[in-house]
Amino acid sequence: MLGKKIAGQMSESLLVGCLLAWAGGFLETYSFFTRDGVFANCQTGNLVMLAMRLTQQNFSEALMYLIPIAAFFFGVLLTDLLRDKCGNRFFHWRQPVLLLEIALLILVGLLPQTSWGNPTATTLISFSCALQVESFRKIGGSVYATTMCTGNLRSGTSHLASLLLRREPGAGRKSLRYFVIIALFMSGAACGTGAATIWETRAVWGACLVLLCVFFLLFCRPLEEG
Prior knowledge:
By secondary structure, the chain is mainly alpha-helical. It has one domain: Up-down Bundle (Growth Hormone, Chain: A). 69% of the residues lie in helices and 2% in strands. The chain contains eight helices and two strands; from the N terminus they run αααααββααα. The longest helix has 29 residues, at 171-199. The protein is globular, with a radius of gyration of 18 Å. Mean pLDDT is 88; it is low at 1-7.
């Protein structure tokens, strides 16, 4: 029944997933509009550009793409280290990760739009997104992402096909969750566009407020959906 408390983790709740997806979309458009047109959340484009620059033997530009890739790499490693080392007696291990992400994004908002400030900002955002995407990977047992949408779109469509073609039990709810996450990501992207236009580099602090809400939500237990 709706409102009944159940066993589980708030970190896997739809509410937390929606807030994180909103923050992910916000960061994507923030980095694009304020940091030289770079999408910092996902590294696929950086990997492609790195390969292209290496093929062209343009090693100085290749290094510029390698830096955010390395930041993402080490962000994932650090997250796994914190998961193994941090206990859950009072703080959930994900909460220190969120605080680190918030601190880094506060710093991003203070960096100037210069030849060194913008690459530094996008590198810190890449690192922060690695922390987030590695820490929050499931909603109700289903794998999802909060800083990119391709996998969510594939999974949501696959579950929808399972519902329409095979009437698979629970497929409709799973599909809806993915499309809700995508909608919140897009909403965050829209808000990031407007905020970047008004507040420029400091707009990133809007994502910090949402992440802070997630931090406090992790003290709670999830409610049953539906």
